[in-house]
């Protein structure tokens, strides 16, 4: 991707074709070739954030108890996308056809945003893995809406050819296929189409018994071809992301682009934690909430503030923005910090030294810009020195001190040893997740990537437990929470954005030696 410095407000992706119908002729793509179009810096940022919201919704869907790729899972995702205002993606997923401007523009944004997001998520193995997983979920979601003719057209357009079973092979294996899979009768096997692929390429079908295995070969029904295509899709993405890691420094040289993507993985784009939930939390609730629903990092900071009546600048930022995001109003925030600090300093000293910064964080001073609460990645990457107490305790506290802190907070010794063991090997977010599970007596599918996500899910668990202690805890979605009319409960769940993602710029067949040349020509 070439970002010319002589055009300060535009990111140029060399245009070779002007016709949207020729460039973006399908709703679902393998993303083999980088886009050739032009986007403004503003559109660049909008595309990236919208797609990240989409992928976060897919990630959040994994917290539900739906069967993967079931109709219930699909309906949940589509509902969440509509709530988030991502109607362009809904159109594409549901198979919008025709050459209307709105459809073509949705395809364009889908295609370009995929490649732009690669720039942010090609930077680590964890980010690449996350990105490939989410993009594959999106791919399969789109594929679910293809008609049989649409599937055939897709395979033709993308030149995807798979080894089909011969009539002789089908006749030999038909009884075995019918008895070992969900294919039904022998007659249905005879009338159906089956492909032969290595069993390792369709692990989901092997696990669920939807294919017949013979000497390392899986016989797959055409109805399940999405599993085969998804494997190829993942390979293209993985290869492209890996290739991009070798040349990403060239992109980082462009300050306009780097400014947008450098902290993308640290941003939180589920609920708007720049503005918070006005009035959700009052001053007198904080002490109780800190014990029940604060993640360990915030609870430690809160108790430090209450006991010492002081906190360094970085700690005030981390903790203050967290309180703002859970809904502490500016007026209550000023009162909260003043009540603590003025136990050691005069009121006029507080007004001169701290009042402006608190108002600044709420967008009421300076540039009048709201600041977002820190995500886990940013918190983990900070290294406080005594007497500072910010950062991630699972990373910064020594093993014995972390264990003692957990014991003091009511965690059993066995569980405290388990959590410190997880933290010791560097799985800080997994340790935080385990702390949540133990303290709330629930099981989670994913680790937290934002302290406000922790807080919200804690509130959901508490709310649901109060509502019906006889039912297992169910973590509700954003749309479900918005329907809840209990004003004291938190209305949004969250999506998390602290992960880096991968990039499928290169195709499977490209020579690594050509990567630099391909990058320059393509972008």
Q: Beta-strand percentage?
A: under 5%
Structural class: mainly alpha
Query: How far apart are the first and last residues' alpha carbons, in Å?
Result: 2 Å
Shape: globular
Number of helices: 27
Average pLDDT value?
A: 79
User: How are the strands of the biggest sheet laid out side by side?
Assistant: 3-5-4
Q: Mind describing the biggest β-sheet?
A: 3 strands, antiparallel
Give the tally of β-strands.
Answer: 5
Number of structural domains: 3
| Percent of residues in helices | 55-70%
CA radius of gyration is 26 Å
Parts with pLDDT < 50 across at least 5 consecutive residues: 1-18, 472-523
Oligomer: single chain
Describe this structure in words.
Mean pLDDT is 79; it is low at 1-18 and 472-523. The chain is built from 27 helices and five strands. It has three domains: 16-144, Transcription Elongation Factor S-II, Chain A (Up-down Bundle); 150-222, no CATH class; 283-467, no CATH class. The chain has 523 residues and is mainly α. The N and C termini lie close together (2 Å). The protein is globular, with a radius of gyration of 26 Å. It comes from Phlebotomus papatasi.
Question: What topology emerges from the helices and strands here?
Answer:
Elements: E1 10-12, H1 20-23, E2 38-40, H2 41-61, H3 71-83, H4 87-93, H5 101-121, H6 125-143, H7 148-157, H8 167-180, H9 186-191, E3 194-198, H10 203-208, E4 211-214, E5 217-221, H11 225-245, H12 248-252, H13 255-261, H14 286-292, H15 296-308, H16 313-326, H17 330-341, H18 347-353, H19 355-361, H20 376-380, H21 393-396, H22 399-408, H23 413-424, H24 428-440, H25 451-467, H26 478-482, H27 515-522
Antiparallel strand pairs: 1-2, 3-5, 4-5
């Amino acid at each position: 991707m070439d970002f010319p410095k002589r055009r300060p407000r535009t990111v140029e992706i060399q245009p070779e074709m002007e016709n949207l119908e020729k460039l973006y002729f399908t709703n679902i793509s393998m993303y083999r070739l980088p886009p050739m179009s032009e986007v403004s810096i503003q559109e660049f940022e909008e595309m990236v954030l919208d797609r990240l919201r989409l992928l976060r919704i897919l990630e959040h869907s994994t917290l539900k108890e739906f069967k993967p790729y079931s109709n219930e899972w699909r309906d949940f995702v589509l509902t969440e996308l509509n709530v988030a205002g991502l109607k362009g993606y809904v159109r594409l997923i549901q198979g919008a056809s025709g050459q209307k401007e709105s459809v073509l523009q949705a395809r364009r944004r889908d295609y370009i945003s995929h490649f732009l997001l690669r720039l942010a998520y090609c930077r680590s193995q964890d980010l690449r893995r996350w990105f490939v997983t989410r993009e594959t979920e999106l791919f399969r979601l789109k594929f679910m809406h293809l008609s049989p003719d649409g599937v055939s057209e897709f395979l033709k357009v993308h030149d995807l050819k798979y080894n089909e079973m011969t009539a002789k092979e089908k006749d030999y294996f038909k009884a075995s296929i019918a008895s070992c899979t969900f294919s039904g009768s022998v007659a249905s096997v005879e009338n159906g189409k089956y492909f032969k692929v290595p069993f390792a390429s369709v692990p989901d079908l092997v696990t669920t018994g939807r294919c017949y295995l013979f000497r390392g070969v899986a016989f797959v029904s055409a109805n399940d071809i999405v599993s085969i295509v998804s494997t190829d899709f993942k390979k293209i993405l993985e290869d492209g992301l890996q290739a991009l890691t070798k040349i990403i420094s060239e992109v980082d040289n462009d300050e306009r682009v780097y400014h947008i993507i450098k902290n993308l993985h640290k941003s939180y784009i589920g609920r708007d934690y720049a503005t918070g939930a006005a009035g959700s939390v009052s001053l007198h609730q904080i002490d109780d909430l800190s014990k029940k629903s604060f993640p360990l990092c915030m609870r430690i900071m809160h108790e430090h503030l209450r006991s010492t009546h002081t906190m360094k600048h970085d700690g005030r930022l981390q903790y203050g923005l967290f309180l703002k995001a859970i809904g502490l109003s500016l007026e209550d925030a000023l009162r909260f910090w003043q009540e603590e600090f003025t136990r050691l300093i005069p009121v006029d000293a507080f007004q001169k030294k701290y009042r402006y910064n608190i108002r600044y964080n709420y967008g009421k001073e300076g540039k009048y810009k709201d600041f977002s609460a820190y995500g886990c990645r940013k918190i983990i990457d900070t290294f406080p020195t005594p007497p500072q107490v910010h950062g991630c305790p699972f990373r910064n506290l020594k093993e014995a001190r972390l264990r003692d802190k957990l014991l003091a907070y009511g965690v059993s010794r066995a569980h405290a040893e388990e959590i410190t063991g997880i933290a010791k090997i560097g799985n800080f977010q997994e340790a935080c997740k385990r702390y949540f599970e133990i303290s709330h007596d629930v099981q989670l599918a994913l680790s937290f990537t934002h302290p406000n996500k922790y807080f919200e899910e804690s509130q959901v668990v508490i709310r649901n437990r109060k509502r019906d202690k006889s039912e297992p805890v169910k973590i509700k979605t954003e749309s479900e929470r918005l329907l809840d009319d209990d004003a004291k409960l938190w209305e949004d769940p969250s999506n998390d954005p602290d992960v880096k993602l991968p990039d499928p710029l290169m195709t499977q067949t490209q020579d690594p030696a050509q990567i630099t040349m391909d990058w320059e020509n393509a972008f």
